[in-house]
Amino acid sequence: MKNLEEMLKKQEYDRIWERYCGFLDINLNEFMVIQERLLMEQIELLSRCELGQKIMGKGVKPTTIKEFRDTVPLTTYEDYADILLNKNEKALPSKPLYWIKTTWKGGTHDIKLAPYSESMIEEHTKAFIASLILATSKKRGEFLLRENDKFLYGMAPLPYLTGLAPYGVENEISFEYLPSIKEAEHLSFEERNKVGFELAMSKGVDLFFGLSSILVKIGEDFVRGAKGSSKHNLKITNIKMLSKLIKVYIKRNIKKETILPKDLWNIKGILCAGTDTHTFKEKIEYYWGKRPIEIYGGTEIATVATETWGGSGLTFFPDVNFLEFIPEKDSMRSIRDKSYVPKTLLINEIKPKERYELVITKFRGGAFVRYRVGDVIECLSLDNEAYEINLPQIRFVDRISNVIDLAGFTRITKSTIEKALDISMLPINEWIACKQYEDKEPVLHIYMEMSDQEYKNSNVKAIVHEHLQVVDSDYKDIESLLGKDPLRITLLPIGAFNKHMQKNGSKIIKMNPSKDSIDELVKCS
Length: 525
Prior knowledge:
By secondary structure, the protein is α/β, with parallel strands linked by helices. It folds into three domains: 4-76 and 312-401, no CATH class; 124-293; 404-523, GMP Synthetase, Chain A, domain 3, CATH 3.30.300.30. The chain has helices at 4-9, 13-21, 28-47, 50-56, 65-71, 81-84, 118-135, 165-169, 181-184, 189-203, 212-227, 242-254, 277-288, 328-336, 414-424, 457-471, 473-482, 496-504, 515-523; strands at residues 96-103, 111-117, 150-154, 176-178, 207-211, 269-273, 293-298, 302-307, 314-316, 321-327, 355-362, 371-381, 393-399, 403-406, 410-413, 428-438, 441-450, 487-492. Helix 11 runs parallel beside helix 13 (277-288).
């Protein structure tokens, strides 16, 4: 079978579109047929391995979707930790080629590992290429992706999921990565972005994939550099970019106008990932002249969904995971009441304007079965009528309410905050924490009541910020890499939390209470 590069050279664009983006042409019934077929294949693999027998039960082999959902329990990473963290390949449904790693915030170990089989990698690669094609596309069937495009790749290398894509893609198409993948593996995150940006200044850039917050930061730094006297910021050695350099020189030095990245580069496509991507899109378009396409995925789930056109939402891939959805109210109840087992819905049962916790079963020999990912999505609509997509359009909202994700850099848990406050030695009676937005950027807001009312807000903020950096290196990176201070502190008078409890009959929840609950707590002061 021809790969993508061979088809591009022969200008077989219709064939390329059908292979990678054909899922956009199916309807919901066809989507469910694919889901059921691949689920039955996965159940067969699971029934023959130790992990599958542990999760489903020995001798259990469901033959329908209903039987599968009625028989097999919902799971979390704790159900897999003993097998996966020990890399027990013999217990798995298929042999892994890679073990993908992520942090396990609030878990029993520091990391989580997820096995990726050859078939999973092939499907992950196909989904990633589909997203790249869509990032360079303005309408169905037309796209600008080509071999040897210069690719500013701003994501973490292996063993993290984002580092897997270049190795899968190399069998399909050649890109010129900035920096090269081999070089990037030996550079820190900050160094990779710096070197990549400098190479883009010299060679130009066609594609970008990375955290949306990083692309905004590069844009902000570019503007500051262009306004300053630093010569290297506008040093371009590629003769093809000479005309752009002249225009930039005129704009900055004669017209005295602000120089933006889009003045130097005509980027074909921008692919962004990470929580809060939706809040950064306008800034990215302002700096780079191209609205980004959002891709949604994760270590345990691979690439789950991609944005298409018109900003109407993301579309699920039908052949990566079996998809189930827990209504948000039931998800929140299960967090409060550990004995409560929520029911799930299928993709043909979700409703517009409703939010759901995502549950997946990995296809193609994956390890995870009815796995509670911990992500919340919102169904925006049941289709995209303007672009003739007859599948639900969704938005990745955030992590579940007991986790606060900041710009895709860190996931703050109750345990993280408790550790920081404990070592700070501050006389704190009660606290709550929530995620809020300022100027469309995420912040961590902690409301606290202290037994010593002499402390000033600014002093408390400095102390808490320092100790959050101590207990969470990812939180520290928000300041060191993005130059952002994400912490906000509100001090409440003694008795505020007690008044709130007396009024409502129960304590306010620690992590991400509702806005109404927070407003009511503040009024109690």
